[in-house]
Amino acid sequence: MTADLALATRALSKSYGSRRALDGLDLTVPTGVVYGFLGPNGAGKTTTMRLLTGLLRPDSGTIEMLGRPFSRSDRHRLFDIGALVESPSFYPYLSGRENLHALASAGAPTPRKRIDEVLEIVGLRDRAGDKVSRYSLGMKQRLGIAGALLSDPQLLLLDEPANGLDPAGIVAMRETLRHLAAIGKTVFVSSHLLAEVQQLADVVGIIAAGKLVREGSIKELLAGEGIVRVRVSPDEVAAAATALATLVQQDHVTASTAEPGWLTIQIAPDRTAEVNRTLAQASIYASGLESGNDLEELFLNLTHDPSAVDPDGTFAGMRGRSTTEIN
Amino acid sequence: MRLFVSGLRKLSRRLATYLTFGLLAGLLALIIIAVAASGGRGQSDGAANPLAIVTFPGAYDLILSFILGLGGLFAVVYGAAIAGSEWTWGTLKTAVARGESRSRYVLATFAAIAVVAALGLLAAFGIGVVAAIVGATIANIPLDGIGNAAALGQLPEHFARGWSAIVMEGALGFAIATLTRSQLAGIGAGIAFYFGEGFASLFLPDVVKYLPFNLASTAVGNGGFGGNGGGGGPAATTTPLSADFALLLVAVWLVASLVVAAGFTERAEITG
């Protein structure tokens, strides 16, 4: 492990009884980046978070944080780390500000003025006097992020931070986390919101069945993962597939059985116009086009989560993204 | 220190604190006034005079006895509620993730409970005395003994013994809720323990006398002064323990409960 890593795990393993939650996890998180930690339900994301915050003891393996080894008994190391593990946890009968005061009394010493600063950062200053029991899920989430920021940590560990946030809250959170990375802090975010991670993270790690199956920068990971979806008249699907096979290998063109008329082409998104032109040259006119470099496709391929895929092999998450309707 | 102060601040804002105290003080005042208003009617031959609770100076000890008897149950429930909620709400998890020492967090939280218990004991006693004065007035009983120097002189020791007992019972509920990691389960188990011990005293008096609620009762019991054992009845022991030895065992139960709570929390895998 090297000093320029904010976080690294080696062969980290954890079992609950006979169930192996983590199976030799190797994470490498550089300093000063936003790291997106992705995985399907039950893959081991939350277990990893618990191990990184000393809530659990690993069966084997090592953790290094901010350049030094970390174990559960080494609790002072957590003074430089802010964490939001699972759902935000607060005293419901106290106000947001009182909860942060209570939190500040534990662990890392925190100046009193810092409480107002973090309330300002997460946009809760106006509601800081309200009891937490009256907070919405999104407000609790903001308060949880405020709690994680209390000690002005060098490394921030956030478990599904966008949960419950409205679109404006998600944008604000993204900007805050990007800002933190820009000033040299490291942000480790676990999420199931792939599009969010794609926008937020510099580096992504994908975990499946307790093992890291891919890790790297978004750009590296998505190279060759682009797709274009096109909608033609259902009786022109075969002809369209033949025409498109001149652009890519034939097995890179898939017709959807669930949505008659839709074809999926594995091709770089910047070649969308080329797809349209090829169809036009074959006298086939597309009535819809979608394109994207898709982390979701990579994610599904790597994690083999059949529940997230349509029966015909196309992925449901494609719907709702930028679509051009042609009439 | 900041953990302890924070613990006190949290308890001072918590409904359970006022609910527990309100129930205890309310029941105490209600019973005293009701007894006085009834004028001790329905007293059977040979039974203690019910109006003794509004007759000073003996009223001091009887009021304290009532508080410590019912207060034992309330202390178990309160201790369990506070410890259990740390697990149920996940606030312990958040503190640990900030690098706080688990055992220090547990002990500081309990220290705040002990202080609140002392304040509650004093306040409930004050309310009880006021209720007894009102009751004595209703029942036309003279208040001559209210300034009895001997009785007043014994109160600090009685308070100290009573507070020790209440704190130990609170620690017991605290430890049970920590082991169950749940507020509701802790409260339920604490109540079951309280009544279970009282029930067991009918069959196993020589064993039960070493159990916490009976020890608490014995530790504070001197002459006419004394709380009730678990389940509302003192153990029918053949060889009763001395109050001082019982107080020592109360301390043992207190320390053991805190060691169990801190030790369990220290080793626990926090998954909730």
- CATH class type of the largest domain in chain A: Alpha Beta
Largest interface: A-B, 34 and 26 residues
Strand content of chain B: under 5%
* Mean pLDDT over the residues of chain B: 88
How many beta-strand segments of chain B? Answer: 0
Domains of chain B, number: 1
Strand order of the largest sheet of chain A: 6-7-8-3-9-10
User: Tell me about the biggest sheet of chain A?
Assistant: 6 strands, mixed
Q: H/E order of the elements of chain A? A: EEEHEEEHHHEHEHEEHEHEEHEHE
Please give the share of residues in helix of chain A: 25-40%
CATH superfamily of the largest domain in chain A: P-loop containing nucleotide triphosphate hydrolases
Task: Characterise the protein shown here.
The complex is a heterodimer of chains A (327) and B (272). Chain A has 327 residues and is an alpha/beta fold. Chain A has two domains: 5-216, Rossmann fold (3-Layer(aba) Sandwich), CATH 3.40.50; 226-325, Alpha-Beta Plaits (2-Layer Sandwich), CATH 3.30.70. Chain A is 29% helix and 27% strand. Chain A is built from ten helices and 15 strands. Chain A has helices spanning 45-52, 96-104, 113-121, 137-149, 167-182, 194-200, 218-222, 237-244, 272-281, 295-303, and strands at residues 5-16, 19-30, 34-38, 60-65, 68-70, 81-84, 155-159, 186-191, 203-208, 211-217, 226-231, 253-255, 262-265, 288-293, 323-325. Chain A has a six-stranded mixed sheet with strand order 6-7-8-3-9-10, with helices on both faces. In chain A, strands 12-13-11-14-15 form a five-stranded antiparallel sheet, covered by helices on one side. In chain A, a hairpin with a 2-residue loop joins strand 4 (60-65) and strand 5. Chain A is elongated and about 70 Å long. The termini of chain A are far apart. The relative contact order of chain A is 0.13. Residues 306-327 of chain A have low confidence and may be disordered. Chain B is mostly helical and 272 residues long. Chain B has one domain. In chain B, helix 3 (58-88) runs parallel beside helix 6. The longest helix of chain B is centred in the middle third of the chain and has 37 residues, at 102-138. At the A-B interface, helix 2 of A face helix 1 and helix 4 of B.
